[in-house]
Specification:
The chain has 463 residues and is of the alpha/beta class. It folds into three domains: 129 residues, no CATH class; 98 residues, NAD(P)-binding Rossmann-like Domain (Rossmann fold, 3-Layer(aba) Sandwich); 194 residues, no CATH class. The chain is globular, with a radius of gyration of 27 Å. Strands 3-4-2-1-5-6 form a six-stranded mixed beta sheet, with helices on both faces. Strands 7-8 form a two-stranded antiparallel sheet. Helix 13 links the parallel strand 11 and strand 12. The chain is built from 16 helices and twelve strands.
């Protein structure tokens, strides 16, 4: 159905572009005005080119897109590439068979119309799922922290999924309910197969990397047999799969892990992106810097800014700045509260921290206390997007693989923040950071920045 709409809108775009060129932009006098019928005949050829390019860039691959933003990005690439190919053909053909201005105008008109089409389809699909139609029944294999977090997010945020049950090998979990979802039994292929058949399961998610490879393969085989989709939470080796190259030593095949991709030109592009946006951000937010500096000063004794030693790229130490959100002697009180941390792992987080001031609680909820970190970004100690910078005493407790998150500049925001912030266990936070490092792109940074806005406004997982 989407292809049919695309055919109609591509043709409509070139028709509108034709009249826009020769009716609205008629002051740009062409050597001759081709009759509309000539253009209309060429549209068949143009449409085929556009659809072929759209197919080539994966625009019709349903599993490729997690959201409409990703689809619009690929649409922009497809439309631009199609337009450039048309320009190339015009250059080679030399005949004046299509106006260059018509092609240029068709590009932005087509992108606008096709983009609106996809936004409307996505909105209609969302509303349909909200009404309870077309929702996938999901089985989660693994009821540990990751499985429980996944179930919570599927229930509350992903309208297309309905988690039905867990399976887990821990006897203490069997028969328990997590977020209203029961643990049905042990991870046995025969039990899972029967459950899939009897409960119309449409997707299985393996949410534990501790399950043996043999069991995982058995489950995947059964999913394929019953045409059930499956997904897996990746282990640490899976996260670096994109950097594995096949090599040979003495005739034996060996896998070689190449250097992380966020180096060289990519690192330079990211740094320029940080400098420009942080400078703009400082200028735009300057009135808020003055306002909250005054409010912090008059509402509690102590300095306006809180300076804290943090670890950045390759284990170096720097001073990270925030608006002070706690009482003056907050650091001295920390040892008394460490045992009350509500996050598993080497990160201290407590929801009702008694050290917080009333203004500080408000600033924390909306992340206003983070504003001064734009100066850290401008000075090169941080990035806008990246792993959060840890405390030195936290890094001392890291395992070797945890330190991989220190290979790049730390960020003000990142995958952790837009995926749940303080709700995410430490081990999963590290996995998100490693995934970000292994799969960096400027588009991914842009998406994370966009997703940070609603997370900040609604205070999701912030404390």
């Amino acid at each position: 159905m989407k292809i049919i709409f695309d055919i109609i809108l591509i043709n409509l775009s070139f028709v509108v572009a034709y009249f826009f060129r020769f009716q609205v932009l008629d002051f740009i006098t062409p050597s001759s005005i081709p009759i509309f019928e000539q253009y209309f005949r060429v549209l068949v050829f143009i449409t085929i080119i556009w659809l072929a390019i759209f197919k080539l860039v994966g625009l019709y691959d349903k599993k490729k897109f997690n959201n409409v933003l990703d689809e619009l990005a690929v649409l922009g690439v497809g439309a631009t590439l199609s337009t450039l190919i048309l320009f190339g053909l015009l250059f080679l053909y030399r005949e004046y068979w299509v106006s260059r201005l018509v092609v240029t105008n068709a590009w932005w008109i087509a992108f606008s119309l096709l983009g609106i089409e996809r936004i409307l389809i996505s909105s209609a699909d969302y509303l349909t799922k909200k009404l309870g139609l077309g929702i996938k029944n999901v089985l989660i294999v693994g009821a540990g922290e990751m499985g429980q977090l996944l179930a919570l997010k599927l229930k509350n945020e992903m309208v297309a999924y309905r988690p039905i049950a867990f399976f887990d090998d821990d006897p203490a979990k069997i028969g328990q309910n997590y977020h209203g979802i029961p643990v049905q039994g042990k991870i046995e292929t025969s039990q899972i197969k029967e459950f899939i058949k009897n409960n119309k399961i449409e997707e299985v998610i393996i949410a534990s990397y501790k399950i043996s490879p043999q069991k995982v393969l058995d489950i995947i085989t059964e999913c394929e047999r019953y045409k059930v989709e499956f997904k897996l939470v990746p282990g640490i080796l899976d996260l670096i799969a994109s950097r594995l190259d096949l090599d040979q030593v003495g005739g034996l095949p060996l896998l070689t892990v190449s250097e992380i991709s966020l180096r060289g030109l990519k690192a330079l592009v990211k740094r320029l992106f940080d400098i420009i946006l942080s400078f703009v951000g400082i200028v735009v937010l300057s009135p808020f810097y003055v306002l909250f500096a005054v409010l912090v000063k008059i509402t509690s004794p102590g300095p306006v800014l809180f300076k804290q030693k943090r670890v950045w790229m390759d284990g170096k130490i720097f001073d990270m700045y925030k608006f002070r959100s706690m009482v003056k002697n907050a650091e001295e009180l920390l040892p008394e509260l460490e045992s009350k941390s509500e996050v598993a792992g080497h990160v201290f987080k407590i929801k009702d921290d008694p050290r917080m001031t009333q203004l500080g609680r408000f600033m924390r909820r909306l992340s206003i206390d983070e504003f001064p970190q734009l100066f850290n970004v401008l000075f090169g100690q941080m990035s806008l997007v990246g792993p959060r910078p840890p405390l030195p005493n936290e890094v001392e407790k890291y395992n070797a693989w945890h330190k991989k998150r220190l290979r790049v500049r730390p960020g003000i925001t990142g995958l952790w923040q837009v995926s749940g912030r303080s709700l995410i266990p430490f081990e999963e936070m590290v996995r998100l950071d490693i995934y970000y490092i292994e799969n960096w792109s400027l588009w991914q940074d842009f998406k994370i920045l966009l997703k940070t806005i609603p997370v900040v406004l609604f205070g999701t997982g912030a404390y």
